[in-house]
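Re: beginner question about structure tokens

> Can someone show what the tokenized structure looks like for a real chain? I only ever see the sequence side.

Sure, here's an example I had lying around. Input first:
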Amino acid sequence: MITQLDLPELQWWPIVPSLGHHAMQATYEADTRELSAVTEMRAASLARIHNLDCVEIAVREHAIREDWDVPGSPHLFFASLDERETRWLGVVQQMDERKVLRTFNDEGFEADWGRGAERKICDDGRYRPQPDASYRTTGRKGMGAGTFDVTIGGRTFHCLRVWDTLASPPSEHAELAEAFIEESGRLVFYRQYRGRQMGPGNIDWAIKYPKNPKIVIDGCVYVHCNCTGRAHDLITNTAIGVDLPGLTY
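And the corresponding structure tokens:
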């Protein structure tokens, strides 16, 4: 059983925000297992945002599906790492015909990208399983939600499952991130869930996707799908046993 681990990667993009690091992730359609996109991240330059030292991470997304189009795709990350936490400082995104820089000083940035995230992740019993396979929260603060063996291809990883509600109580109008992190602190598998009533209008994701996996916490139903309106599974280079070369200067 894993009760605590150190995660030096950004939450939830699997790269360590330190000069020279290099990572990749692959996005699959959950229903057909079709490869949709491959994303490469390289921490290749030192930078400074609002007088805070950080690294610039170049992000390159290679679309595989012809209809792959994610609004606001990132081009650059600006982030930092110290002994206690990782921190998002800025992101350059493609917005229609323009590239737009947003930083932690901009309204809504932390809601979209997060704030300083503690590297130490623990399972302190926050999520208590119920007889009907749902979960109840206990008032504790840890994001860990049990220990699992995750098999991807021919490789099996002993992982801490993480449920991230963005430091908010469970809600059917918000997202839930599910991450599986192996013991040495590397993400191997990731999914996003939407609260069944999240988004404009009267859409109910549980009705739209009755066969998609669901997680129920404190009576709130989360459905496996994301901002594209589809369900995706993300695996990392760690998951398939590919050690990418570090960058040299």
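Each token stands for a local structural state, so reading them left to right follows the chain. The longest helix spans residues 109-113.
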